């Protein structure tokens, strides 16, 4: 499968076209809307999220609730658009209105894409960069991820995301028995954290950052269970699924690092405390005593849950802005202040689920076929049976 996204933060809509989705998959808007609503939530979001009510329209590739195998076009409206038609150039600007209406951006925000994008594409108004670098685009990445999750669900594969850390507050008690339990407990927390005490402290940390005109980042984790053994491949660098997951997580706005399993901790431990010992029994086939390597060996899935973590830096737009330079006058100025979130880590956990689910669904289809669900399901079943007694 592949997908493209298009759309500006304050344009009329966000669009994605997904190609390669198998036929005969039951798919309705509600399958996707659940995650769109989750992405809008989470403590620390700004006023924009009160304006938007993200709902997907499925415009092609689905008839009578089932995919046809044709490209699927998904659209999510920007409700805020009606306030931005003049700024975005869709309505004429009256005489003398130009300066006020265009909301020209000439003071780049440190940490955002403004300055580099402006120099690269020759934009004296950095709004042209802001509009596309905004994480509003993650709306349709979550929509595409919703389709991927629906595919995975047909094989009993479950995806869950949660928050491990915000602004230096770490979750301690994060053990869970299943991804279903993880999902239920993380949804019950305003910061999508399994540790109730840490949730309270995280909310306090977000409030403090907001009061100080500052922002904070954190760490999210995605877990996927019931994955067949052998997705991805060791035979070529660009077929290693762990590498694809790392790239996918790093592609989320503001993400600065990725770990699989114990990740960086592996540097500090001996091999005997890192590698996962192999077990076999008739019912389950091959399993592991532990899952420190987060479900991967040799760029392939081991059948243990996939565990991927990502680090999100603090939001760059600050109400107490950092020093910048006005690109018109070259004078030092404070960076522009745009309406902004103070912490989007809980929302980003939902985006991380989507991008990871996408890569895993894609790897599954690469291994087991593309055309219709029934054939793919039969192929997966045959593989699972063979792997069990291998
Ligand atoms: C869900 C989400 C919401 C975000 N909200 C904001 C925001 O309100 N203001 C802001 O300046 N950056 C926000 N960001 C981060 C910027 O989009 C990001 O820092 C920017 O695109 C520059 O890219 P980079 O940080 O990956 O280098 C958000 C990111 C995510 C994932
Ligand atoms: C719109 C979303 O996030 C936006 C991401 C974002 C940024 O710079 O990345 C800046 C803000 O945009 P605005 O200035 O319009 O409030 C966020 O609200 C969204 O997540 O749907």
Automatic annotation (TrEMBL):
It catalyses: 5-O-(1-carboxyvinyl)-3-phosphoshikimate = chorismate + phosphate. PROSITE patterns: CHORISMATE_SYNTHASE_1, CHORISMATE_SYNTHASE_3. NADP(+) binds at residues 39, 45. It is an enzyme of class 4 (lyase). GO terms for molecular function: chorismate synthase activity. InterPro entries: Chorismate_synth, Chorismate_synth_AroC_sf, Chorismate_synthase_CS. This is Chorismate synthase. The lineage of its organism: Bacteria, Bacillati, Bacillota, Bacilli, Bacillales.
């Amino acid at each position: 499968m592949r997908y493209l996204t298009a759309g500006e933060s304050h344009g009329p809509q966000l669009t994605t076209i997904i190609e390669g989705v198998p036929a005969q998959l039951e798919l309705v808007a509600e399958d996707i809307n659940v995650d769109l609503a989750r992405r809008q939530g989470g403590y620390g979001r700004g006023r924009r999220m009160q304006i938007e009510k993200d709902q997907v329209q499925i415009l092609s590739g689905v008839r009578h609730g089932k995919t046809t195998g044709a490209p699927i076009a998904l659209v999510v409206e920007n409700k805020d658009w009606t306030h931005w038609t003049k700024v975005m150039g869709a309505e004429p600007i009256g005489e003398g209105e130009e300066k006020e209406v265009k909301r020209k951006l000439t003071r780049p925000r440190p940490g955002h894409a403004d300055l580099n994008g402006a120099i690269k594409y020759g934009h004296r108004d950095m709004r042209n960069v802001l509009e596309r670098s905004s994480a509003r685009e993650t709306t349709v990445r979550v929509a595409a991820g919703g389709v991927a999750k629906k595919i995975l669900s047909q094989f009993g594969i479950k995806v869950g995301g949660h928050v491990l850390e915000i602004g230096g507050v770490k979750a301690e008690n994060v053990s869970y028995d299943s991804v279903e339990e993880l999902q239920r407990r993380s949804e019950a927390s305003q910061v999508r954290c399994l540790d109730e005490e840490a949730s309270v402290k995280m909310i306090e940390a977000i409030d403090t950052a907001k009061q100080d005109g500052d922002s904070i980042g954190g760490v999210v984790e995605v877990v996927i269970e019931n994955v067949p053994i052998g997705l991805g491949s060791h035979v070529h660098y660009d077929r290693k699924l762990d590498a694809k997951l790392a790239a996918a997580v790093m592609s989320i706005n503001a993400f600065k690092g990725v770990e699989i399993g114990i990740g960086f901790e592996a540097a500090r431990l001996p091999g005997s405390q890192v590698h996962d010992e192999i077990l076999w029994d008739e019912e389950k086939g091959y399993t592991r005593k532990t899952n420190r390597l987060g479900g991967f060996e040799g760029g392939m899935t081991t059948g243990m849950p996939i565990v991927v973590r990502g680090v999100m830096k603090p939001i760059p737009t600050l109400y107490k802005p950092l020093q910048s330079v006005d690109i018109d006058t070259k004078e030092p100025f404070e960076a522009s202040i745009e309406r902004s979130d103070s912490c989007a880590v809980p929302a980003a956990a939902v985006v991380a689920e989507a991008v990871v689910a996408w890569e895993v669904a894609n790897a599954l289809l690469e291994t087991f076929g593309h055309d219709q669900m029934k054939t793919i399901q039969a192929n997966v079943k045959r593989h699972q049976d063979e792997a069990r007694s291998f």
